[in-house]
């Protein structure tokens, strides 16, 4: 069985080596697929070096910034094409700890789609800046209210078996940024796949900057309303 972990990167030179080492430490046999959107720092150089020394490191280099959702779509498509049986997706900035791989993989055999949750236990985003907590909780309430999703639907840390989830589900989300995550969760729920949530502690990034901009938050809000009206009111 071939497994891979998909990691989108945009100027993550300070984080990827640390994450790479942590992934190796899990001793789980998987390929590591970086999807870089034309980082202007040394991210690509580091990824290339890693792939030279370790055949398990693969990469997709894209020519411009197309968004985190689009990076996931391209990488997931590649993984299906290359016939990987299991996919994990995660951020590069140290927020997602590979120590959860084992339990995520175990659950992926029992359920169709495994996601991670910041709300299942207390203090899972304890060290996050107040404004990020506010965004996270507000988004959670809005997604719950308008789409009826009670999951923590917007995290990127996920795991599934490719034979259980058809590739086209990921492309039914037309969003290419952060809304991709809740939209895919919504699609998966609509199609009645089983979803399992693992509580994980998320560490706020210590190095490098978040790529989430104010425009992403506003756009995401409008996008949520658009999906709500189209699907619930217009029934399209
Ligand atoms: N390839 C690619 N990666 C991205 C893009 N935007 C963000 N990322 C990566 O996606 C992950 C999550 O982004 P981050 O800035 O940490 O978002 P935040 O956690 O919501 O603040 C990180 O690994 C980023 O480097 C993008 O447009 N393209
Ligand atoms: Mg982050």
Molecular structure report:
A seven-stranded mixed β-sheet has the order 3-2-1-4-6-5-7, with helices on both faces. It is built from eight helices and seven strands; from the N terminus they run βαβαβαβαβαβααβα. The chain has helices at 16-25, 43-53, 68-81, 101-110, 130-147, 168-172, 179-190, 214-233, and strands spanning 3-9, 31-37, 57-62, 86-89, 113-117, 158-161, 195-199. Helix 1 links the parallel strand 1 and strand 2 (31-37). The chain has 236 residues and is α/β, with parallel strands linked by helices. The radius of gyration is 17 Å and the shape is globular. It is 42% helix and 16% strand. It has a single domain (3-233), classed as Spore Coat Polysaccharide Biosynthesis Protein SpsA, Chain A, CATH 3.90.550. The mean pLDDT is 95. The longest helix is centred in the last third of the chain and has 20 residues, at 214-233.
SS-based structural class?
Answer: alpha/beta
Overall pLDDT metric: 95
Q: Which range does the strand content fall in? A: 15-25%
Low-confidence stretches: none
Task: Return the string of H and E elements.
Answer: EHEHEHEHEHEHHEH
Strand order of the largest sheet: 3-2-1-4-6-5-7
Radius of gyration: 17 Å
- How many strands in all? 7
CATH architecture: Alpha-Beta Complex
CATH superfamily: Spore Coat Polysaccharide Biosynthesis Protein SpsA, Chain A
> How would you characterize the largest beta sheet?
7 strands, mixed
Please identify the top-level CATH class.
Alpha Beta
